[in-house]
Design a protein that fits this description.
This protein is an alpha+beta fold. The chain has one domain: Ubiquitin-like (UB roll). It is 18% helix and 23% strand.
Length: 91
């Protein structure tokens, strides 16, 4: 079972410039753990000290914000697309 993760441009230096990474995992949390094991340093850019998704990072599963689903416990099915989108600040 595999899903894909879209890596935003600022984090691609950690993924050898890969934009799309194939992962296996049954929850968003498991996917984050797999990303960290393959690309050390990526997890601390996505999660805060308590393990929650950082405020300025949005994670979507099939275009739905995980904050409105089950957060990191959101189930992942084969073929799902996970998008990591850093919030853009400014005005």
């Amino acid at each position: 079972m595999s899903a894909t993760v879209r890596i935003p441009t600022p984090l691609r230096k950690l993924t050898n410039n890969e934009e799309i990474v194939e992962v296996s995992g049954t929850t968003v949390e498991a996917v984050m753990t797999e990303l960290q094991s393959r690309y050390p340093g990526i997890k601390e850019r996505l999660l805060d000290e308590s393990g929650a998704v950082r405020r300025f990072v949005n994670v979507y599963v099939n275009e739905e914000d995980i904050r409105f689903l089950q957060n990191q416990q959101t189930p992942i099915k084969s073929g799902d697309e996970i998008s990591i989108i850093p919030a853009i600040a400014g005005g």
